[in-house]
Amino acid sequence: MTGDHESSAGDDADPGDDEIEIALIAAVAANGVVGADGSIPWHYSADLRHFKETTTGHPVILGRKTYENVVAGLGEPFPDRLSVVLTETLSDLPEGAVAVGSVEEALSVAREAAREMGVETIYVAGGSAVYEAFLPLAGRLVLTELHGEYEGDRYFPEVRWDDWRETSRETGEDFDFVEYRRVS
């Protein structure tokens, strides 16, 4: 991770498309819930801080509804990140966000942004349909695994756990920060 995405040092070593990793980042309840009625049904400051620290300086792909919830909460797109918004309806977005109409276009824009930012990871931040579209392409999962179950109407997609290996876990009282890497 790098917070200094304006640095142009190491231009000769900029990552190519094959070296740019796609990582899904999500907070997931024990019953798979990721959302309810257009919002997140829990609030953990440490999880929000983890999301910010992990994604700052990187392109973040997200769906229209998730983007609109971010703007409603923050008053702007994610600061210090490029929000790549997968949508069929939005076209005129403020600085820091760009609208795209397909998974392929989202990847193209995000890869170019990652190269310009000098980073090797694109994060995918939901909602559930966007997670489902990008899961087959992801090489890493960055999850906040909540210990409790929550009521909701949006779920993280089914994961074939045989295809993934846990690489780190930071255990907490109400949730764990866990990373997985694809093994097949």
TrEMBL record:
<dbReference type="InterPro" id="IPR012259">
    <property type="entry name" value="DHFR"/>
</dbReference>
<comment type="pathway">
    <text>Cofactor biosynthesis; tetrahydrofolate biosynthesis; 5,6,7,8-tetrahydrofolate from 7,8-dihydrofolate: step 1/1.</text>
</comment>
<protein>
    <recommendedName>
        <fullName>dihydrofolate reductase</fullName>
        <ecNumber>1.5.1.3</ecNumber>
    </recommendedName>
</protein>
<dbReference type="GO" id="GO:0006730">
    <property type="term" value="P:one-carbon metabolic process"/>
</dbReference>
<keyword id="KW-0554">One-carbon metabolism</keyword>
<dbReference type="InterPro" id="IPR024072">
    <property type="entry name" value="DHFR-like_dom_sf"/>
</dbReference>
<keyword id="KW-0560">Oxidoreductase</keyword>
<dbReference type="Pfam" id="PF00186">
    <property type="entry name" value="DHFR_1"/>
</dbReference>
<keyword id="KW-0521">NADP</keyword>
<dbReference type="GO" id="GO:0004146">
    <property type="term" value="F:dihydrofolate reductase activity"/>
</dbReference>
<dbReference type="InterPro" id="IPR001796">
    <property type="entry name" value="DHFR_dom"/>
</dbReference>
<feature type="domain" description="DHFR">
    <location>
        <begin position="21"/>
        <end position="184"/>
    </location>
</feature>
